Backbone:
């Protein structure tokens, strides 16, 4: 299926429109005032976000996994990743009450808990970094196309359309095979294959912003392109980009798990996808080693779910287009 | 958009469609039930693996999978005996060989009255044509075997003479040297002057002389072989007990194992010890770890990349470290690698620690390292030998320094992403070597990438394996100087860049000595050189993992010996001897009654149809009330 | 812009995209590397160096790159997709043998998940905030977040292997039984039996996307002025929904649906892999392992072409149903 997460409308308060930057004629101390307004806007957003149950649930899950990833060595001894580590258990043992064997062991006697905890680091890292590539590429292309228009737009949007028709997963697989199995290549592959939908969204938004009166006024007053883009367009595209970014992380983490499961990940760095790939390759499904398959998969589902929920909540608050009936 | 709509119409249509789908599938299920209960009379044996044939054409394919199928279709001039790979004249198309006093002419006497599967006579003409064709075009599968053949001459329908280019023992019939399938001239003769066309022949359906011939091949799915009605072996008691053999291709072992458990297949080859272990606990399934010629090694960039070839034509290249090029250093690594632990933990016990690339069941030249120089696993001994070889930690950073370059010894170690065992082995080896002060940097790359790294000489160690022929000639050949990759980007079999003048001399000698016992001695001397120089640190002879339905088939012929491959894939013997147990026929495979999936589909379809129907009705009532 | 000019311009755009795909295809696969060396090494010596050179010539790899490109484009335009390096069979045949399996499995799953997804989405959107809506929202978000191969593995463990208390009631992958070979109706049930588990996995995995889109699209429509007007006119809820809200909300969902039919043919790689389903998804994955780039090129062309066609159909249909689009 496509790379663009489906839209969603969630519960919201009445009249929830939030504008991050308000635009009137330039006041006496424009920078100072703009800063204060932005801070106020951020506080307003947070107040609204706190009331969004789904968003808060997602945020709590996310914070949990981020903490686990950051403190992974303290949660589960790094030594457990090394099959020669003296603290490994028996091979393919089922779950037990003894820490760190709560989730049992893999075929080299490594605790699945340790693998899953440390896998969080790689999965989140790949998800975040490849999203940054996607967002930067997509934003720049969408911005340039939308802002300048003309031949730049024609060419850029044509290329965007071209990339949209090439099936994502086959292309990603070919690229990953071409670049070899490393963290860098998997990040690169996800980053360069998923920007087109972002570029399209950004362009549409820029097109509508461009015709707003305050932008035209600023242009008439002789503002440079750079000033217009950085002061007027970007701050207003920002919220959209932000909500979109959070949703893209979800998709990127799913993509990482799929590519790693197909054996295209870096086998020397444990991610949730590579754990599943190893389990599959070692016959865990047939042998019934469910404890080796469930934890990494559930971790993927929870993190992707959390990013999706946070993304939708943000989208709801920052880009109110839908009206409650 | 038009506001008036037929959404209700759509819904009714869906309901009708779903209901009719349910009815239709019910009818179909009934029909299936009626048909699957009719007994199938054919006796079929289905074996499976996760490897697709590379080609069914004996001039083109190169995988073990292909060889297994050819073994059923075609004959070698002399077959490998099931027990020990020795020449088996009793069950070959050749009954005896006379050696000329010059040791340059070999007269083969064939069994009379043999026929091909299409009824044409199978005579010395076919053998001579095939071997001469191989001499002429040197197909990669056979060129090494016919290397010393000048020409093959037909004397009469059952006699042909091999004329060699030099005195040799290899064609004398005391060992199976020619692993060369004999093709029917009346089919392949049309390619006499067009080798390229011969190679692109799909060879399906095939005409062969073995007990079974390929009838059809569905890519990615299966190969079907049917019994050869004219098989010559039936005259001497080699009568198959099944009518059809199917090779089923799986993409993944979990599915293959489940298929064996459910009885969809009768026999499966596996790679995962975990799967084999869990299969062994299931009812009606027998598992077997077959000891066959198959090994895994740690290969070194042994340094000839930096020397000039005495024979010329080799340009030194690559970035291999100085330490890996030092035989003393490589022998220290041998002492620091615990093959037994790797066998237990990585290979799941389905392997035997190994010392020599020539496997113990090779047809000649079995060799063991001398007792006083066996280099057993001993990290303390390794550490002191490393110091004795001049490698000490001069800068105190915990990693030894090279006595010549003064640099830290950091080995570039490559594993293959397509082989889990190589990836699992790496942390063990890394840990042992680091304990004696050798740094290791592990990288995992695809098979293709590693190929180019090896050709370029840009590595210190990699983990790979070989599947040698029963005769040691093949595996010994890869350590000769001329097999080295001459430059980056050009392939060479000699992946350790090993080059030793004495070794090369012995290699030629083992081909040309006329006394078999003498050849065995030369082969042993060559293995001693490999042990002294250690281009490969051998890890293990790895088992082929096999499991079959013991409630369905029995009477497998194992090759070699008692512990070998159940399907004896170097010849057709096991496929001939396997016997269905009791009334086991292909018909039993069909589960009785309507399959569960169909029931569930019907129930689901009915439920959905009913749900939609009632929903539609309720809404209509809502509307009526309005 | 009138209808005909709109049609022609869309068609030209589609052709241009196809041309790009053709070029992209060629250069991408030349970048993968030399398939010949790969074969050599994997055969561990069973393929000689001279045989390799011969193979290289057969594949035209000894020609300069521009010449190879011209050759490739010419051949493709004539409908020759080349010969598979691995199977030594024309790419067209290799693809044709497997296309049916993919269309059957992925196509049916897409149809089922769209129908179910749209239905669930409408029910949710209409009774927004109800227990049904919240429960379904949780469920569809969960299935949307789930890697489909993981769900597939769990289903295989439960119903194909029979781990723990679960019954092993489904055959283990593949399109049909190996033996006996069924014909006619029995063949249909046999295939159905093999297909049910992967069909279920795919349908559940795809479901979320459609229901989420349908739900939000319906909610958006419900906020529109004409709905307010319709209510003001005193129309009953059901009438408002059936005659005004749902038909308008279906429009964007339909576009997504048509587009996803364009992706049907590229298969479900992971699901085809774990269920041993011999379709185009599995083929594209194994072809990479085999470095079979004529097959990959053919597949990419086919995949992209089907997406391009689906795009075109969606555009034209949209412009027919919503004439405002043509003016834009």
Residues:
């Amino acid at each position: 299926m496509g790379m663009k997460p489906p839209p969603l409308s969630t519960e919201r308060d009445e009249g929830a429109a939030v504008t991050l930057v308000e635009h009137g004629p330039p006041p006496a101390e424009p920078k100072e005032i703009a800063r204060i307004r932005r801070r106020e806007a951020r506080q307003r957003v947070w107040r609204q976000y706190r009331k969004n149950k789904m968003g808060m649930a997602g945020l709590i899950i996310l914070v949990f996994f981020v903490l686990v990833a950051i403190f992974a060595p303290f949660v589960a001894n790094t030594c457990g990743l090394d099959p020669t580590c003296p603290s490994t258990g028996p091979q393919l043992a089922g779950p037990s009450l003894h820490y760190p064997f709560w989730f049992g062991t893999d075929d080299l006697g490594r605790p699945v808990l340790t693998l899953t905890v440390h896998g969080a680091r790689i999965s989140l890292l790949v998800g975040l970094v490849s999203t940054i590539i996607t967002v930067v590429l997509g934003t720049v292309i969408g911005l340039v196309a939308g802002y300048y228009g003309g031949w730049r737009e024609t060419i850029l949007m044509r290329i965007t359309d071209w990339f949209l028709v090439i099936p994502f997963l086959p292309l990603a697989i070919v690229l990953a095979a071409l670049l070899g199995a490393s963290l860098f290549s998997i990040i690169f592959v996800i980053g360069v294959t998923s920007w087109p939908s972002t570029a399209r969204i950004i362009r549409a938004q820029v097109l509508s912003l461009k015709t707003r009166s305050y932008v035209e006024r600023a242009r008439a007053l002789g503002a440079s392109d750079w000033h217009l883009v950085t002061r007027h367009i970007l701050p207003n595209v920002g919220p959209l980009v932000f909500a979109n970014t959070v949703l893209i992380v979800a998709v990127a983490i799913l993509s990482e798990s799929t590519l790693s499961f197909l054996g295209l990940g870096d086998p020397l760095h444990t991610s949730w996808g590579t754990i599943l790939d190893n389990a599959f390759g070692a016959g865990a499904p047939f042998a019934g080693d469910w404890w080796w398959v469930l934890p990494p998969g559930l971790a993927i589902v929870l993190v992707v779910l959390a990013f999706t929920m946070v993304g939708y909540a943000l989208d709801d608050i920052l880009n109110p287009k839908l009206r409650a009936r | 958009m038009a506001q008036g709509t037929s959404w209700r119409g759509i819904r009714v249509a869906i309901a009708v469609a779903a209901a009719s789908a349910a009815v239709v599938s019910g009818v179909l299920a009934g029909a299936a039930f009626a048909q699957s209960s009719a007994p199938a009379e054919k006796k079929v044996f289905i074996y499976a693996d996760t490897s697709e044939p590379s080609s069914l054409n004996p001039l083109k394919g190169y995988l073990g999978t292909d060889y297994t199928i050819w073994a059923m279709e075609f004959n070698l001039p002399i077959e490998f005996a099931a027990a020990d790979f020795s020449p088996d004249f009793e069950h070959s198309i050749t009954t005896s060989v006379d050696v000329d006093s010059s040791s340059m002419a070999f007269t083969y006497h064939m069994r009379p009255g043999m026929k091909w599967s299409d009824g044409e006579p199978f005579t010395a003409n076919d053998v001579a044509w095939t071997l001469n064709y191989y001499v002429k075009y040197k197909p990669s599968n056979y060129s090494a075997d016919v290397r010393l053949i000048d020409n093959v001459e037909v004397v009469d329908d059952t006699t042909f003479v091999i004329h060699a280019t030099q005195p040799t023992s290899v064609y004398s019939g005391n060992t199976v040297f020619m692993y060369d399938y004999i093709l029917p001239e009346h089919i392949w003769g049309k390619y006499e002057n067009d080798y390229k066309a011969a190679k692109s022949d799909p060879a399906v359906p095939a005409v062969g002389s073995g007990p079974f011939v390929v009838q059809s091949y569905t890519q990615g799915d299966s190969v079907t072989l049917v019994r050869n009605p004219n098989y010559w072996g039936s005259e001497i008691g080699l009568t198959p007990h099944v009518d059809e053999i199917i090779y089923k291709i799986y993409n993944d072992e979990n599915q293959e194992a489940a298929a064996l458990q459910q009885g969809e297949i009768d026999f499966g080859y596996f790679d995962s010890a975990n799967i084999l272990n869990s299969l062994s606990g299931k009812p009606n399934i027998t598992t077997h770890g077959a000891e066959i010629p198959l090994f895994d090694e740690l290969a070194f960039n042994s340094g000839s990349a930096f020397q000039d070839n005495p024979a010329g034509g080799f340009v030194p290249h690559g970035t291999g470290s100085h330490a890996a090029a030092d035989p003393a250093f490589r022998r220290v690594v041998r002492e620091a690698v615990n093959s037994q632990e790797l066998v237990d933990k990585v290979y799941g016990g389905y392997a035997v620690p190994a010392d020599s690339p020539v496997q113990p069941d090779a047809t000649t030249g079995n060799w063991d390292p001398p007792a006083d120089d066996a280099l057993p696993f001993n990290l303390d001994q390794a550490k002191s030998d490393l110091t004795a070889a001049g490698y000490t930690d001069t800068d105190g950073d915990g990693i030894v320094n090279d006595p010549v370059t003064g640099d830290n010894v950091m080995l570039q170690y490559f594993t293959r992403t397509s082989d889990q065992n190589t990836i699992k082995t790496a942390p063990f080896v890394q840990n042992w070597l680091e304990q004696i002060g050798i740094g290791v940097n592990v990288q995992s790359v695809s098979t293709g990438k590693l190929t180019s790294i090896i050709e370029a000489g840009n590595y210190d160690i990699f983990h790979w394996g070989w599947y040698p022929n029963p005769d040691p000639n093949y595996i010994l050949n890869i350590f000769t100087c001329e097999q080295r990759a001459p430059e980056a980007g050009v392939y060479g079999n000699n992946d350790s860049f090993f080059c030793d003048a004495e070794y090369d001399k012995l290699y030629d000698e083992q081909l040309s000595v006329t006394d078999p016992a003498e050849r065995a001695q030369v082969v042993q001397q060559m293995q001693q050189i490999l042990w002294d120089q250690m281009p490969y640190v051998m890890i293990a002879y790895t088992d082929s993992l096999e499991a079959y339905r013991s409630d369905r088939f029995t009477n497998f012929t194992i090759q070699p010996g008692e512990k070998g491959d159940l399907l004896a894939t170097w010849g057709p013997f096991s496929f001939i001897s396997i016997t269905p147990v009791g009334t086991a026929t292909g018909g039993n495979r069909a589960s009785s009654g309507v399959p569960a999936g169909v029931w569930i589909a019907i129930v689901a379809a009915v439920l959905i149809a009913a749900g939609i129907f009632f929903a539609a009705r309720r809404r209509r009532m809502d509307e009526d009330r309005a | 812009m009138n209808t005909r000019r709109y049609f022609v311009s869309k068609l030209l755009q589609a052709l241009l995209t196809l041309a790009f795909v053709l070029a992209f295809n060629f250069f991408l696969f030349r970048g993968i590397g030399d398939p010949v060396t790969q074969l050599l090494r994997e055969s561990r010596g069973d393929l000689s160096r001279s045989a390799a050179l011969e193979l290289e010539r057969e594949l035209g790899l000894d020609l300069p790159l521009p010449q190879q490109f011209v050759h490739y484009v010419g051949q493709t335009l004539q409908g020759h997709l080349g010969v598979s390096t691995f199977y030594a069979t024309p790419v067209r045949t290799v693809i044709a043998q497997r296309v049916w399996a993919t269309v059957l499995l992925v196509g049916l799953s897409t149809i089922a998940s769209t129908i179910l997804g749209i239905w669930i989405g409408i029910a949710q959107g209409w009774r927004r905030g109800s227990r049904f809506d919240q429960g379904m929202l949780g469920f569809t978000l969960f299935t949307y977040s789930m890697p489909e191969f993981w769900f597939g593995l769990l289903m295989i463990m439960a119903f194909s292997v029979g781990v723990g208390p679960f019954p092993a009631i489904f055959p283990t992958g593949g399109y049909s039984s190996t033996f006996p070979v069924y014909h006619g109706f029995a063949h249909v049930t046999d295939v159905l039996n093999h297909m049910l588990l992967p069909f279920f996995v795919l349908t559940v995995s795809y479901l979320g996307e459609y229901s989420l889109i349908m739900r939000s699209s319906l909610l958006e429509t419900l906020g529109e002025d004409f709905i307010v007007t319709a209510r003001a006119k005193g129309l009953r809820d059901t009438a408002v929904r059936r005659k005004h809200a749902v038909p308008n909300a279906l429009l964007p969902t339909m576009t997504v649906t048509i587009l996803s039919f364009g992706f049907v043919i590229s298969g479900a790689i992971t699901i085809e892999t774990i269920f041993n389903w011999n379709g185009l998804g599995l083929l594209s994955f194994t072809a990479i392992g085999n470095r079979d780039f004529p097959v990959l090129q053919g597949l990419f062309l086919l995949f992209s072409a089907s997406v391009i066609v689906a795009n075109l159909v969606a555009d034209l249909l949209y412009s027919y149903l919503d004439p405002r689009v043509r003016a834009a």
User: Anything to note?
Assistant: The first helix of chain C runs from residue 3 to 31. Chain C touches chain B through 77 residues (CB under 8 Å).
